[in-house]
Amino acid sequence: MSSKTMSRDLFGDKRMGFFIYLFVEAVMFATLFATYIIYTPAEQGPHPSELFEMKTVVLSSIFLLSSSGTLMIAEKGLERRNANLILTGLLITFIFGATFMYFETHEFYKFVSEGHTVATNNFLSSYFVLVGLHASHVLFGLGWMIVLLIQRELLPYTLFEEKHRIFNYYWHFVDIIWVLILIIVYAPYLF
Amino acid sequence: MEFYLFGELIVLPTDVVAAWVSVILGTPIVLYWLTKKRHWPVIWDYATSTNHRKIGTLYIIFAILFFFRAGIDALFIRLQLVTPENQFWVFQGDKYNEIFTTHGTMMIFFVAMPLLIGLMNVAVPLQIGANDLAFPFLNAIGFYLFLTGGMIFFAAFFFNAAPNAGWTAYAPLSTYEFTGGPNNNYYIFGLQISGLGTIFAAINMIVTILRLRAPGLKLTRMPLFPWASLITSFLILVAFPVLAIALLLLQFDRLYGATFFVGELGHPVYWQHLFWIFGHPEVYILALPAFGIFSDIISAFSRKNVFGYTSMVIALALIGMLGFMVWAHHMFTVGLGPFANTFFAITTMMIAVPTGVKVFNWLFTMRRGVIRIKTPMLFALGFIPTFVMGGVTGVMLASAAADMQYHDTYFVVAHFHYVIIGSTVLGAFAGLYYWYPKMTGKMLDEKLGKWHFWLFLIGFHLTFFPQHLAGLNGMPRRVYDYTWEDGVFVYNFISTIGAFMMGASMLFVIWNVYKTHRPKKENVGADPWDGRTLEWYVPSPAPEHPFEKMPIIDRRDALWWAKQEGKPLPVAEHHRASPVSIRTVQPFVLSVALTIMSFGFIYGWLWMQIIGGAASLGFFVLRAFNDERTAVYRKEEQDNEQ
C-alpha cells in the first residue's frame, strides 16, 4: 500500500463518520425542538414574550453567526498552508464565540435571578434544556479551539489540517442549530 | 435483614445480602484462579486492544455474563409465579417490580444489543474484506461505554436500589414523585452511557461498510449480514438519539424539578411517544442483524446461494423504514383516536409483508439444497417456525380493536418473547456457534451444541406458549400474584418448568466452552464449515489486519466459486489505507470518569458530578494529544518529501 494516500483515505473515513455523528446530533436537537414547540407557551407561568429581550438575542446572534464567517479565514489559511491566517481566523472565532457565551450566560443569569428557573414552567424547562444544550456545544467548541491552537505546534501538518477541518464542520453545525433556535425559539415571540 | 451501622438502622433484603456475600467470597477465588492459570496477560491484551475481533469477543463475553444475571432474574420471576398466592423469598411487591425491570432492561440493552454488536464486530469486517473497523479507537470507546453503562445498571441491585418502573420507565411512574430514591436514576445513566456507545458502534459500522470493502465487492455483492448490519446501524442513528433526549428530559424531571412528564403542565403520553419512537425501531435493531445471520447460515449450510437476494435486501430496508411508522401501536389504549389507531394498525400489519418475503426466501434457499444439520443450522431451523408464531401474534396485536383486550396481558409478554428470543437470541446463538472458530480458532462441540439447542427450544416453547393462554384468560403482566380462582395456575406452572429447562440449557453452553478449551488442541483451518463468504478466507482465529493482499471480488459468494473452480481468489496489490490500531488504556480512563460522574448524579452529590464531569472532559484533552495517527502521518509526510 502506498503510504502517500493514507491520510487522504483516513480523512475520508473520518469526515464521513463525523457527518454521521452530526446527523445524530441533529436528531437530538430535532427532538428538543419538538419538545419546545409542544410545551411553549405554557398555560401557567411566564410567557416567552415577557422574557425574551431583542437586544441580547440580536447581539449574541451577530457574534455567533459571524464567527462562522471568521472561521472561513482559518479555512483559507489551511488551504494555503498559511500559519498566520489560521491563527488569526481561530483567534477571532474564539473571541466571537466567547462573546456569544457572555451574552448567553447573561441571559440565563437574568432569567434565573428573576426567579424563572428550569422548574418554573414547561416553556422554561424546554427552553433551558434546548438552548442550554446548544450553549454547552459552543462552550465545548471554545475548549476545542484552545486544543487546536496547541495541536498546531505539535502535530504533523496533515493531521492538524484533518482535525481543524473536523472542527470547522462542528462549528458550522452549531451555528446552523443557532439559526434554527432563532427561528423556532425566539422569533415567534419577539416579532 | 436489619442491623445498625454507625447508629443508623439499615434494612437490607436478604437477596441483596446473598449477592454481596457471594461476590465477596467469589472474587478472591476468581482472582486466584486467574493468577494461577496466568490469564492476566490475555486479559490485558484484550482490555487494551482496538482489534475488532477482540472487542467483538469482549462484547459477547460480557453480554453472556449479563445474560446469566438477567436469566436468574427470570427464574426468580417464574418461581414467584409458580403457584397462586405464592411467597417466594422476597420477590413480592416492589421487589418484584425491581426484578422484572432489571430483567427486561438488561436483556434488551445489555444482552441482546451487545451480543449482536459483538457478532457484527467479529464478522462484518472479515466478510467485506476490511482489515479492521474504520475507527478502531472509537470501537474500543464504544465497548467501554457499553460496559460502563451495564455495570452502573448492574450495580443498582447491590446498593438495594434497582430500577422499578419497568423497562419502558413510563411516566409519571418513573418521575420523582412516584418512584423517589436513586433507583430510576440508575436506569437513566446506565442507558444513557451505553446508548452513546451503541451510537458510536453504528457510526463505525456504517463507515466501515460504505468505505472499507474489498475491491470489486459492490454493495450488491455483499453478504446479507453486512447488509443487515448497515440497515440496523441507520436505525440506531435515528432511534438512539431520541432515547438519549427522552432520558435527558426524564433526568430534568427527576433531578431538577422540571415537569415534562408529570403535573398539570406535563404530558405523560409524551414520554410514551418518545420512548416508542426509540423503542419500536429498537425491536428491528434487534431483529434485522439476526435475519442477516440466518440468511448467511442457511445459505452456507444448504450449499446454495441465498434465494431472492435482491428481495432480501429490499425487505430489510422496508422493514427498517416501516419500523419508524409503527410506534403508536404500543399505545392503542392511550386514546389517540380512531384515525391514529387505524394508521398505526395498518402500517404494523404491512410489516408482515416484507417479513413474509424473507421467511419464504429462507425456505426457498433450503429447497433442493444439500442441507447439513450442524448446530448453527439447527438454530436457524428452530428460528423460522418460532419467529413466524411471534409474527402471527404480532398481526393479532396490530388490530387496534382486539388489542384493547390483549394490552398489558401475558399475551403481549408471550408475543415479544417469541419475536425477540425467536430472532435475536436464537440468531446470536447461531452466530456464536458459526463464528466461534473465527473468534477463537476452536470449534464448539456439536453434541453439546445440540443438547443446548433442543433443551433451549423446547424449554422456550414450554415457557412462553402457555403465556398466550394465560394472557387470553386475563392474566396481567407485571403483577406478582394471582389466585386459584383466576384459572391460570396450570399455564404458569408449565411456564416455570420451561424456564428452568432454558436455564439448564445454558449450563451446556458453559460445559461446551470448557470442554472446547480444556485440552490444548490445534486450531482449525481457515474454513471449517466450507463457507461461502470472505471471513472463511482468512485464518482462524482471524489475525490482526488479515488482508495483507486484498482479494478482488467479481461476484456474490466469490470465495465459494473460487473453491468450486479450484482457483485462488485474485488479489490486488494496492488498496486503500487500513485503519490504524493502537494499544490503549484511554477508554478505561473515560469509563472511570463517567462512572464517577454518573454516581454523582444518581445520588445527587455535586462534588462527585464536578470531579467526574471534569475528568470526562479531560479525557478529550488526553485523547487530543495521544492520537495514534501522529506517527503514521509524520512518516507519510517524510516519505512524501523524499
Report on the architecture of this protein.
The complex is a heterodimer of chains A (191) and B (642). Chain A is mainly α. Chain A has a single domain (13-40, 58-190), classed as Four Helix Bundle (Hemerythrin (Met), subunit A) (Up-down Bundle), CATH 1.20.120. Helices cover 85% and strands 0% of the residues of chain A. Chain A has helices spanning 6-39, 48-51, 54-80, 83-113, 122-154, 157-190. Chain B has a single domain (39-641), classed as Cytochrome C Oxidase, Chain A (Up-down Bundle), CATH 1.20.210.10. Chain B has helices at residues 14-36, 40-47, 52-80, 93-128, 136-158, 183-211, 224-256, 268-302, 309-322, 338-366, 375-398, 400-406, 410-440, 446-472, 489-517, 558-565, 586-603, 606-624, 629-641, and strands spanning 2-5, 8-11, 550-551, 571-572. In chain B, the strands form 2 sheets. Chain B has a two-stranded antiparallel ribbon. Chain B has a two-stranded antiparallel ribbon with strand order 3-4. In chain B, a hairpin with a 2-residue loop joins strand 1 and strand 2. Chains A and B meet through helix 1, helix 5 and helix 6 of A and helix 6, helix 7, helix 18 and helix 19 of B. Chain A: GO terms for molecular function: cytochrome-c oxidase activity. Chain A: Pfam families: COX3. Chain A: Belongs to the cytochrome c oxidase subunit 3 family. Chain A: The chain crosses the membrane at residues 20-39, 51-73, 85-103, 123-149, 169-189.
Name a few traits of the molecule.
heterodimer; A: 191 residues; mainly alpha; Four Helix Bundle (Hemerythrin (Met), subunit A); 6 helices; 85% helix; 0% strand; elongated; B: 642 residues; Cytochrome C Oxidase, Chain A; two-stranded antiparallel sheet; two-stranded antiparallel ribbon; 4 strands; globular
CATH topology of chain B: Cytochrome C Oxidase, Chain A
The count of domains of chain B is 1
Question: Which residue ranges of chain B are poorly predicted, with pLDDT under 50 across at least 5 consecutive positions?
Answer: none
* Widest sheet, order of strands of chain B: 1-2
Helical proportion of chain A, percent range:
over 70%
Summed up, the helix count of chain B is 19
Give a quick account of the main beta sheet of chain B: strands, pairing sense, barrel closure.
Answer: 2 strands, antiparallel
Count the strands of chain A? 0
- List SSEs of chain B in N-to-C order: EEHHHHHHHHHHHHHHHEHEHHH
- What's the mean pLDDT score of chain A? 93
Number of domains of chain A: 1
Organism (chain A): Thalassobacillus cyri
Membrane topology (chain A): Multi-pass membrane protein
Main location (chain A): membrane
Subcellular location (chain A): Cell membrane
